[in-house]
Design brief:
The complex is a heterodimer of chains A (216) and B (222). With 216 residues, chain A is an alpha/beta fold. Chain A has 6 helices and 9 strands, in the order βββαββαβαααβαββ. The two termini of chain A are 31 Å apart. Chain B is built from 9 helices and no strands. Chain B has helices spanning 2-18, 20-41, 45-68, 73-77, 80-86, 91-120, 125-152, 159-186, 192-221. The longest helix of chain B is centred in the middle third of the chain and has 30 residues, at 91-120. The radius of gyration of chain B is 18 Å and the shape is elongated. The two termini of chain B are 24 Å apart. The chains are: A alpha/beta (216), B mainly alpha (222).
Chain lengths: 216, 222
């Protein structure tokens, strides 16, 4: 049993394998992500980066091996649901709601501060203050990404962020903004597992690069 | 837990308000389907009165099944469903809230429209009262079962047809006792037995369907 510490538990993968249909995407993947660290998951298209993130979030079951959170498999780890922020490729915003309504629902769902001031502040942080009452349907691809990532600006405690291509469709200003959020998050002892096909840029916090290609 | 139920419920109501035409389609279908019967069967009040309970109940069943197919589809497509499952709240609470919202948007208007349509079919006042009560107990059952079907067929092609094949057999007891209550009232017999069974069915579906739905949603997301 790992010692109980005050910080965020470690996310660890041991001998992880994933199968999609009858194709094995990867086998024997091991990594561990401690509090205050970030891992940049790399790999060619179709290597299973998103599948790995879904395994880590506990959305799917591995073919072999396991992902654990503080020593407990993620699907049974009680504290993980509250500490996890999973931002998938899909935005989880509703086209028919306004940006702030969509964000408020997500905040409420995950037990984060969901009052108007917090939501507006988070949207302001990602440069979406002027579009906060616009229906999500009317947003551009980049604006949608910003609105999705505004969830990160609502975080106050150390938590585990699993981000699928957070830099996608963002302009350089947006990339800076996300990197700022990542810095603050790591500084308060949070951990990050992210995928990105482009380099996170110079302003990004130091990240351990993990290449999925050799595990195919 | 209560706040999450309320949050999901209110969000679905708000979404329905933003898509008013779509939300009205089931009740429009209900009205149109029922008003076709006098035209097709013939306007003899005697025949219509005899068939009224069945006509209204079958139309309500079909209207619910038509509208329930998309209950989880858009949340699945835009990633909201993943977030709901990952939030750590019991999936059954979320499934219950979604079914409750579906009933408020679709089931309740059917219940409200039913007495008017009953008049069209020349139902007696006692039968109208029984119809109202049986639909009030029965339409939530249909929403709950429909939600389960929607979760089971999530992400499949031709999900709508499959859902009807899966869920219509399960809703036959509600149909039998619901329509039976109205026929009994029309004949001047006691309706207590029918309503007790309908109530028992409602309690059982309320307890079981959300749990089954949450398992189905988990599987659909894998």
């Amino acid at each position: 049993m790992p010692p109980v510490s005050a910080g965020l538990p470690t996310l660890a993968a041991e001998g992880l394998a994933c199968r999609r249909g009858n194709r094995v995407l990867f086998t024997g993947v091991n990594f561990s992500l401690e509090a205050g660290r970030a891992i940049w998951l790399r790999g060619r298209n179709g290597r299973g980066k998103t599948s790995l993130l879904r395994l880590a979030a506990g959305l799917s079951v591995p073919e072999a091996g396991m992902v654990s959170w503080g020593g407990v498999p993620v699907r049974r780890a009680a504290g993980l649901a509250h500490s996890l922020v999973y931002v998938a490729h899909a935005s989880a915003l509703k086209d028919d709601l306004s940006v702030s309504e969509s964000l408020r629902f997500l905040a409420l769902l995950h037990g984060r501060a969901s009052d108007t001031a917090s939501v507006y502040q988070a949207l302001d942080r990602v440069g979406m203050a002027s579009r906060r009452d616009a229906p999500v349907r009317t947003l551009s691809q980049g604006q949608r990404r910003r609105a999705t990532l505004a969830r990160l600006a609502l975080e106050r405690e150390a938590s585990l962020w699993i981000l699928d291509e957070p830099y996608d469709a963002l302009d350089s200003d947006g990339v800076e903004c996300i990197n700022g959020l990542l810095h603050a998050h790591l500084a308060r002892g949070g951990s990050v597992l992210l995928t990105s096909h482009q380099s996170p840029g110079d302003s990004a916090p130091p990240m351990a690069s993990f290449d999925l290609d050799p595990f195919a | 837990m209560g706040t999450v139920f309320l949050a999901v419920y209110l969000r679905d109501l708000r979404l329905a308000l933003r898509r008013r035409v779509e939300a009205l389609l089931p009740v429009v279908f209900f009205v149109v389907a029922i008003s076709l019967f006098p035209l097709g069967v013939g306007p003899e009040p005697q025949i219509l009165r005899q068939m009224a309970a069945g006509i209204v109940w079958v139309s309500a069943l079909l209207a619910t099944m038509l509208s329930v197919t998309s209950l989880y589809a858009s949340d699945h497509a835009d990633g909201s469903l993943e977030q709901m499952i990952l939030s750590g709240h019991p999936g059954s609470v979320i499934a219950g809230a979604k079914a409750a919202a579906h009933w408020t948007v679709t089931g309740a208007p059917l219940v409200l429209a039913a007495p008017l349509l009953g008049l069209l079919l020349d139902m007696s006042p006692q039968a109208l009262a029984a119809l109202l009560a049986s639909l009030l107990l029965g339409t939530p059952i249909l929403s709950l079962l429909g939600g389960m079907g929607a979760a089971l067929t999530l992400g499949l092609r031709s999900a709508g047809v499959l859902l009807i094949l899966l869920i219509v057999p399960l809703s036959i007891p509600a149909l039998i006792f619901g329509a039976g209550a109205v026929s009994a009232a029309e004949a001047g017999l006691s309706t207590a037995g029918h309503f007790s069974l309908l109530g028992a069915l409602l309690i059982m579906t309320t307890l079981c369907a959300p749990i089954a739905t949450s398992f189905a949603l988990r599987i659909a997301l894998e």
